[in-house]
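Need a sequence for this fold. Nothing fancy.
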């Protein structure tokens, strides 16, 4: 990677991160909202731990992976909405007149979103440990959990960037929020797939890639080192990242031709 490209990525990532920090709604909500849902759901669904075969006696430990996924959802919104705003205000058009690389634009935007996602991941893990969650995989597992969370945030952030480049509309990017949130609820977010009684729900959760992202993170908390769950978690997130980056690259070329 050439030095000019590194410098471009750094400057754009710093701009993206600072712009996010200047918007309290984009900074506080991703930290507070997932934790609120974690404790509300844990209080309401604690009885599920009494089910035969439930993998943990603590629903907080079972559900701790969910805030990391919701943090990735906010990465989608932050990365995509900010880029859409740049398109709408003409900032991207002005950048097209400079030697800026398209790769730097995408990576810089992702870098800003993932910087916030890293802060979120540390907070989520710290809160989990503070309320008594014991990581079955130990300290090393906590680091792997953060690494997987960042990879998922990268993948979801790339989805937001693709939508921004494809539509040029912040409203279209924000329209992804309810759609992705539905995918969360149609996954193994609240129950292990083998304990889901409704056949259609279990089938949807099984083909839903979000289930494998959640289960990869969850395995580090309540199981330990589960090679299959981790392989699927990292594999699905990496596949989503590659596909989203490829789609973003194609959309960027089209967008730059329009400008």
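Here you go.
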């Amino acid at each position: 990677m050439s030095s000019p490209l590194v410098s471009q990525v750094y400057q754009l990532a710093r701009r993206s991160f600072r712009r996010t920090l200047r918007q309290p709604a984009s900074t506080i909500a991703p930290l507070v909202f997932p934790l609120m849902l974690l404790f509300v759901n844990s209080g309401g669904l604690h009885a599920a731990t009494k089910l035969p075969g439930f993998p943990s006696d603590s629903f907080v430990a079972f559900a701790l992976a969910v805030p990391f996924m919701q943090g990735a959802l906010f990465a989608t919104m932050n990365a995509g909405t900010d880029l859409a705003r740049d398109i709408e205000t003409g900032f991207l058009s002005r950048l097209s007149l400079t030697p800026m690389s398209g790769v730097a634009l995408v990576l810089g935007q992702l870098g800003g979103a993932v910087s916030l996602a890293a802060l979120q991941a540390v907070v989520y893990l710290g809160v989990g440990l503070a309320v008594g969650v014991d990581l079955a995989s130990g300290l090393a597992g906590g680091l792997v959990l953060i690494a997987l969370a960042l990879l998922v945030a990268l993948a979801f952030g790339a989805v937001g960037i693709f939508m921004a480049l494809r539509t040029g509309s912040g409203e279209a990017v924000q329209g992804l929020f309810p759609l992705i949130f539905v995918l969360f609820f149609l996954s193994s977010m609240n129950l292990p797939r083998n304990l889901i009684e409704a056949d259609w729900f279990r089938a949807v959760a099984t083909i839903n890639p979000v289930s494998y992202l959640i289960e990869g993170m969850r395995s580090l908390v309540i199981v330990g080192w589960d090679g299959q769950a981790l392989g699927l978690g990292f594999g699905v997130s990496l596949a989503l990242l590659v596909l989203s980056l490829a789609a973003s690259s194609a959309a960027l070329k089209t967008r730059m031709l329009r400008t």
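For context: The radius of gyration is 19 Å.
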